[in-house]
Write a structure and sequence with these properties.
Strand content: 5-15%
Number of strands: 7
Strand order of the largest sheet: 3-2-1-4-6-5-7
Order of helices and strands: EHEHEHEHEHEHHEHH
CATH superfamily of the largest domain: Spore Coat Polysaccharide Biosynthesis Protein SpsA, Chain A
Radius of gyration: 24 Å
Structural class: alpha/beta
Oligomer: single chain
Number of domains: 2
CATH architecture of the largest domain: Alpha-Beta Complex
Length: 310
């Protein structure tokens, strides 16, 4: 094992009205791990209206913070992990407050970072084997993970897992914009910033009592997650995506012009002037789409330069 001097680990727990489960989560987090000199626990309440904060303090959390109002998981995760970096964490492990993850497996997340220099390690819940996950949630997760693999070229099996480890440098380079969930956004940003991303198999327990605070509606969750994926991909791959779309529109427009030309040469052009107009509109939109892609790419390059300075 590579030797690091006095590594500091902070486990962040975003929580929203989890007074019934937060104690079990905090008390099951190991306080001694190989290769780690200091372990602390941070609970960040997302504007909870129950006794989550008080319960977390009594359970032994080292830090307890709260949003003034409910802001969503992504913003709460972002605030918690950024504060962990400010508090000197070398590694940040994020876990959920509903006790579905086995906190003893934190050590599995740390191995790729300590031994192989990974920037980010995600826990694979092995969704296809789960029998307690609702069918819609299960196949929604499978579809989302497949989409992320196609868009990023990664081999991650579980793109929605919230049980992850990050280095302080990885956290410092994330710029999160979603207010729904951070899971897909961080993967896309990590890949496009050439970070080393690992995945390890983990245990995912059945939720005891209550229901997910994040997924109140599978349709709403998929809609918001899709919007996040599209926005994040465009941040990093705008030129490729928009040039592809623009080129397709121009090609369709050219087909229409060829069609009009064929009728015109046959002496029937006057009856198909609509095709010429429609084709001209498609070509114009196509060129403008490509232009937007070029501009967006220049903005992306400028952002990467700024990220590199930070």
């Amino acid at each position: 094992m590579r030797k690091f001097p006095k590594l500091h680990l902070i486990v962040t727990i975003p929580a929203y009205n989890e007074e019934k489960m937060i104690t079990q989560v905090i008390k099951s987090i190991p306080r001694k791990l190989r290769g780690i000199d200091k372990i602390e626990v941070m609970v960040w309440s997302d504007g909870s209206t129950d006794q989550t904060m008080v319960t977390a303090k009594l359970a032994g959390a080292d830090y307890v913070f709260s949003n003034k109002k409910n802001l969503g998981l992504a913003k709460t995760f972002n605030r918690a992990t950024k504060r962990a970096v400010e508090l000197g964490a070398d590694i940040i492990v994020n876990t959920d407050a509903d006790n579905q993850y086995d906190q003893k497996e934190i050590s599995k997340l740390l191995v790729p970072i300590i031994e192989h220099g990974a920037d980010m390690v995600s826990g694979d819940r092995q969704i296809q084997k789960l029998t307690h996950m609702p069918v819609m949630n299960k196949y929604g997760n499978i579809l989302g993970s497949w989409t992320i693999r196609m868009l990023t070229g990664t081999k991650l099996n579980d793109a929605s897992s919230g049980f992850r480890a990050y280095t302080r440098d990885a956290i410092k380079h994330f710029s999160l914009y979603s207010d729904h969930t951070y899971t897909h956004e961080t993967i896309i940003q990590a890949v496009n910033q050439d970070m080393l991303v690992y995945e390890v198999p983990i245990t995912f327990k059945k939720r005891v009592g209550g229901k997910s605070k994040l997924i109140s509606s599978i349709y709403s969750h998929m809609k918001k997650s899709s919007a996040t994926i599209i926005r994040t991909i465009l941040m990093y791959k705008a030129l490729k995506v928009l040039v592809t779309i623009g080129s397709a529109l121009i090609l369709l427009g050219m087909i229409g012009i060829v069609r009009f030309g064929t009728f015109y040469l046959d002496g029937n052009g006057s009856g198909h002037i609509q095709s010429l107009i429609f084709s001209s509109i498609l070509i114009s939109i196509g060129f403008n789409t490509i232009l937007i892609g070029v501009i967006a790419d220049l903005i992306s390059i400028n952002r990467k330069l700024l990220e590199g300075r930070n």
